[in-house]
Design a protein that fits this description.
alpha/beta, Rossmann fold, two-stranded antiparallel sheet, 6 helices, 25% strand, globular
Amino acid sequence: MNIIVCVKRVPLTQEVDLEIDGSGKKIKEDALAYVINDWDNYAIEAAVQLQENLGGEVTAVTIGVEDDEEVLRRALAMGADRAVRIDPGELVTDGYLDATILAKTISGLEYDLILTGVQSEDRNTGMVGIMLAEQLGLAHAAVTNGVAPEENAATVHVELEGGIDEVSRIQLPALLTIQTGINEPRYVSIMGIRKAKKKELKVMTLDDLGFGAEALIPQTQIEEVFLPPETEGAEMIEGDAATVAETLIRIMGEKGVAV
């Protein structure tokens, strides 16, 4: 089974004081550390586990500059067979363009299954995987936390709201967006890093893919990025059930909430 995994390098924003840059449309990233997108890490592990059981090849793909090869090297060290980086040059992409570029790249590769993370930690839109599937004309399932391929189909478990799972059968080739918790990503060993240096890492440009300028127009624009305003914090309501209920109704009325 040949599997393609789409991965991304994202800034590590937890437990740091974020600052908005001068444009007011993005955060300052110069002093931030970068890591592999958490959801993508689980997607790589899922692909490698399937390869170990079923054979075939795993190819990791990313859109980014040379520094973004770090996540491809990690994927190779985890067990991927080869990697592809698409250099966007000066182009600033959005989710639509990411899906379009990935679709053009992947259309020239052999695959039975494409895995992406549910979403990325920097944009949190959750749209790229589904748009990629639509552009490639593939059956797809989102928020997948289990997959078991069988011949030309696969049984997939999809996480729904309220802790409920949905079990479906999907025809291959297909695309799945992978949820965290589907597995336990393996530790990247020194031996894995050494082996990764010998594996293929191909770099392509947008010109290599045959894109014209008219095809690379973002469909979304960020108007403003801002930090949430500081509030006074939570109000603790005390008393018996009747008192608490009466207070809640009063507060919701003051806030304009219909009760």
